[in-house]
Design a protein that fits this description.
- The protein is mainly alpha-helical.
- It is about 50% helix and about 5% strand.
- It contains five helices and two strands, in the order E-H-H-H-E-H-H.
- Strands 1-2 form a two-stranded antiparallel sheet.
- Helix 1 packs across helix 4 and helix 2 crosses helix 3.
- The longest helix has 12 residues.
- It is globular and about 30 Å long.
- The two termini are about 15 Å apart.
Length: about 90
C-alpha cells in the first residue's frame, strides 16, 4: 500500500466530543478485536488495512472514521457473524 491509509483519521482533540458517526465507538478497537478473538494482524487483514494502521487505532494515535467506524460497531455487536461474512467476501 502506498501513501497514507485511507481508513485512518487523525485524532483531533477539538472533535473528541462529537456525536456524529465519526465519534468513538462504545468499545475500543482493542476491545472489539479481543471480543472477535482475532490478532491485530488478522483484524487488519479482515477490515482491509495495514497492521501498522490498525495498531495506531488501538494505541489511540488515530481513530476510525466513517465506514471503518461502522464496521467496528458491527464487529462489536455481532463478532462471530461479521467475521464469518467478511471472510466469505474477502
Amino acid at each position: 500500500m502506498t501513501g497514507p491509509d485511507p481508513c485512518l483519521v487523525p485524532v483531533d482533540p477539538a472533535q473528541s466530543n462529537r456525536s456524529d458517526t465519526n465519534s468513538e465507538p462504545v468499545a475500543t478497537p482493542l476491545e472489539v478485536r479481543e471480543k472477535a478473538g482475532l490478532t491485530a494482524a488478522e483484524m487488519a487483514e479482515l477490515i482491509g488495512m495495514s497492521e501498522i494502521g490498525y495498531k495506531l487505532w488501538e494505541s489511540g494515535a488515530r481513530r476510525p472514521g466513517g465506514p471503518a467506524y461502522k464496521l467496528l460497531a458491527l464487529l462489536d455487536a455481532h463478532p462471530k457473524e461479521t467475521v464469518a461474512r467478511l471472510r466469505q467476501h474477502g
